[in-house]
Design a protein that fits this description.
By secondary structure, this protein is an alpha+beta fold. The protein contains two helices and 16 strands. The protein starts with a helix and ends in a 5-residue tail after the last strand.
Amino acid sequence: MKLVITILLFLFAISQNIFQSKKFKVVYFNRIEINGIYDSESAEYINNIKCKIDGQLFYIADTLKEFEFSNRIWKPIIQIAKNKFQLLLEINDRPNKNKILMLTIEDNKLVNEITIPTFDTFFFDNSNNKFFIGQSEFPEAVDNNKKTQYIPTLFFIEKKTGFELDTSRTIKFNKKKWGKFYGFQPNFSLLIKPNKN
């Protein structure tokens, strides 16, 4: 009986090791390749991310960072010029809200790297411009749900030149919501009662 249990434990350990080293790969535009390893606890999380374009390595993520590649309301990559791309990688930031790591690649090199909120919704304006809306964190209600931490809502416009923060729309919206614009970054020590309109 002990031998059977030992064999079963050994087989389980091997299967866990195989799952831990299961490789992830996705290719965009037949040029941009993302490789990683599936997380041992959940197949939806990918770590050890390495990004290549035309076989050249341009980004290596910290090994502790986890990414998700599920379908979202935004495109994972857009081409913004003949040899220029924006790659939007979703960082799993549990228990906090996920973030987007936006990498801009030009002439096979990484030229810009910023972190932006994941987008919660989108809309089109009268000129058919597409806007994405997101907050960098989940707001927490305090003071009997009358006040919350200041977490601004950010508006991004998808242009032919890539995603850009629409500062004027962001300021206007947050002024209306909070009575005043307190900046583009969250301020967790600032507790305000948002307007309902």
